[in-house]
Design a protein that fits this description.
There is one protein chain. It contains 13 helices and 20 strands. It is an alpha/beta fold. It has two domains: 3-208 and 407-429, Aldehyde Dehydrogenase, Chain A, domain 1, CATH 3.40.605; 212-389, Aldehyde Dehydrogenase, Chain A, domain 2 (3-Layer(aba) Sandwich). The chain has a seven-stranded mixed β-sheet with strand order 10-13-14-9-8-16-17, sandwiched between helices. The chain has a six-stranded mixed β-sheet with strand order 5-4-3-6-7-19, with helices on both faces. A three-stranded antiparallel β-sheet has the order 1-2-20, with no helix packed on it. The longest helix has 19 residues, at 57-75. The chain is globular, with a radius of gyration of 22 Å.
């Protein structure tokens, strides 16, 4: 292990021994300052994001501002980690929540600030310290976040960025200083990291891929559904785990809804990411664009029909594509990470549900219907961590975010996230 990485791990461990004793309310005061630094410099940090992964600058600014809102939420949150008194026959009967120590974060490039901070903030508020392994193209974001924590007045070592590659994650995770790991990324990366954590008896939290269904039924508001659906698929150039990826349309309204949807979809024309009016730019890397193109050709090879061709116009940019896919196409077993959407046609609610659930993933799903009974049918039967009704899926600091099946386990956001990286200690006696 590099000497500087060893020093950073020791620094994080030493910082934890002091930080765990800092009162919850004082940690929250520092979070308020952290949110203020982000708010006051949103364009500065947004430019780092756009430079690193080509996100349109308006979406990068929105990402930084969303981080500030999330931090403000935790800065005002109730202290759910106070010892709880339990009624028993014993004189002392309590539950305590004890921070675990140094937590490793392995984070992706698609939301370089948001993915990091939504894991880091509740972990640190709970009394832990964090070391980050960011995506290799996002070291600028990782270093900027470390400086933001110091600027807000956090002690040295509370949050540190490690400039390491994928191969060094195993060595860091096996280090005795590290007590748990949170990973956001692919199914393959999650399985690797979880297996290392498991062998070393360390907790892991995984937020993995998705192939979310966007279900449009015959009584939906077509205009809003079409507008929301295009945004759900193409925002962030389609590079989001919880993006709408499979548009399941009820057969009776295919002819009425599809043209409206296509019209909205075609409004996303690749442009300069530094211009505020740009809605979609290029993908983060050429190899990711290569992979999407391969998946597109594979889907067509197995019978997918082209509604809008996926047209590559540079090494990283596409004119967004849309294909009609039938059950059984092997592309449905994969996650499409980029500006390519799939349309599926269902006879009725039961078939729409079967299509939605019949994949390895279970992150989030969106259902469009005005009927409360139909809404309830999908709420109760969809296999996913989130069900959105008459809106596209989006994470909210107040609500838990996590997946089912191959989309991972554990919870980010909400007050529940404060208890992810703590040890529950029972105290009992006379």
């Amino acid at each position: 292990m590099q000497k500087n990485i060893q020093i950073k791990l020791k620094t994080a461990d030493k910082a934890f021994n002091d930080w765990k004793k800092v009162p919850f309310a004082h940690r929250q005061k520092l979070l308020k300052k952290l949110a203020k630094v982000l708010k006051n410099n949103s364009e500065k940090y947004a430019k780092i994001i756009t430079k690193e992964m080509n996100k349109p600058i308006s979406q990068s600014i929105a990402e930084v501002e969303k981080c500030a809102l999330m931090i403000d939420y935790y800065a005002k949150a109730a202290n759910v980690l106070k010892p709880e008194k339990i009624e028993t026959e014993f004189r002392i009967s309590e539950i305590h929540y004890v921070p675990k120590g140094v937590i490793l974060g392995v984070m992706p490039w698609n939301f370089p600030f948001w993915q990091v901070l939504r894991f880091v903030v509740p972990s640190i508020l709970a009394g832990n310290t964090v070391v980050l392994k960011h995506a290799s193209i996002c070291f600028g974001s990782g270093n900027a976040i470390e400086k933001i924590f110091l600027e807000a007045g956090f002690p040295k070592g509370i949050f540190q960025n490690l400039e390491i590659g994928h191969d060094e994650v195993k060595e860091v995770l096996e280090n005795l200083v590290i007590k748990a790991v949170s990973l956001t990324g692919s199914e393959k990366a999650g399985a690797e990291v979880a297996s290392i954590a498991g062998k070393n008896i360390k907790k892991s939290l995984l937020e993995l891929g998705g192939s979310d269904a966007f279900i449009v039924l015959d009584d939906a508001d077509f205009k809003n559904a079409a507008e929301s659906g295009a945004k759900a698929r193409l925002q962030n150039c389609g590079q989001a785990c919880n993006a709408g990826k499979r548009f399941i349309i009820q057969k009776d309204v295919e002819k009425e809804f599809l043209p409206v949807f296509v019209k909205e979809y075609q409004k996303y024309v690749p442009g300069n990411p530094l211009k505020k009016e740009t809605k979609i730019a290029g993908m983060a890397r050429p190899d990711l664009a290569d992979e999407l193109e391969k998946q597109y050709n594979k889907a067509i090879k197995f019978g997918a029909e082209i509604i809008l061709p996926l047209e590559r116009i540079s090494d990283i940019a596409f004119i967004p594509g849309l294909i009609k896919v039938k059950a059984g196409n092997p592309i449905l077993e994969e996650e499409l990470f980029g500006p390519l959407g799939m349309v599926m046609i269902a006879k009725n609610d039961e078939e729409a549900l079967k299509m939605a659930n019949d994949i390895p993933f279970g992150l989030s799903n969106s259902v469009w219907t005005k009927d409360k009974k139909r809404q309830q049918f999908f709420i109760e039967n969809l296999d996913s961590g989130t069900v959105s009704i008459n809106k596209e899926t989006s994470s909210d600091p107040r609500l838990p975010f996590g997946g089912a099946k191959s989309s991972g386990y554990g919870v980010e956001l909400s007050l529940l996230a404060l208890k992810e990286f703590v040890t529950v200690k029972t105290v009992v006696g006379n």
